[in-house]
Amino acid sequence: MKTLFTMKLISTTLLVGLILFSLACGYSKNIMPPAAGTTPTIAQLNPPSATANNAVQLEVDGTSFAANAVINFNGTAMATTFVNATKLQATIPATAVMNPGAVPVTVTNPAVAGGQYGGGTTAVTSAPMNFTVN
Predict the structure, then answer these.
(1) Which residues lie across from 35 on neighbouring strands?
(2) pTM of the entire structure?
(3) pLDDT at residue 23 above 90?
């Protein structure tokens, strides 16, 4: 009888210890919130203007462009070619260059996923620079 009681006591103690160890070494709510990524800056557009109803090969020069940065023409993301951290290119279709006036151009550095504890970055968009449609 004494042996059975001792075995139950040891089993219970081991079980409680295992549970406490699992709780102490396991899950943590230490998740890092995403931080803002690097903000791109536009220095110039080349060409700075175009005639309405004509497609345009647009080059955006600036700083801090990510490898997967996107040129936004009048709020629409364009298929973008990354040249380097200071130069991006995109072909703007004639359908996007239809109405005369100023068209805002921005560059967005997309979000980057975080590591083991979350984090990462959020997407960041440059200040706009106007492209002129004549």
Answers:
(1) 121
(2) 0.71
(3) no
Look up residue 82 and give its two tokens: 């990354």
Assess if residue 17 is contained within a domain.
no
Percentage of the chain beyond pLDDT 70 is 72
CATH label of the domain that carries residue 48: 2.60.40.10
| Amino acid occupying residue 34 | P
Cis peptide leading into residue 47 (ω within 30°): yes
List Cα–Cα distances, 55 to 2, 30, 64, 92, 106, in angstroms: 92, 50, 27, 6, 18
- Domain membership flag for residue 88: yes
- In the chain, how many domains are there? 1
Question: Whose CA is closest to 85, among 110, 62, 57?
Answer: 62
Whether 40 and 126 have beta carbons less than 8 Å apart is answered as yes
Block residue for tokens 């690097």: 38
- Whether residue 23 lies inside any domain: the answer is no
Burial class (CB in 10 A: 0-12, 13-18, 19+), 35: exposed
Residues 117 and 96: their CA atoms lie apart, in Å, by 41
SS3 114: coil
Residue 77 has which token pair?
């993301």
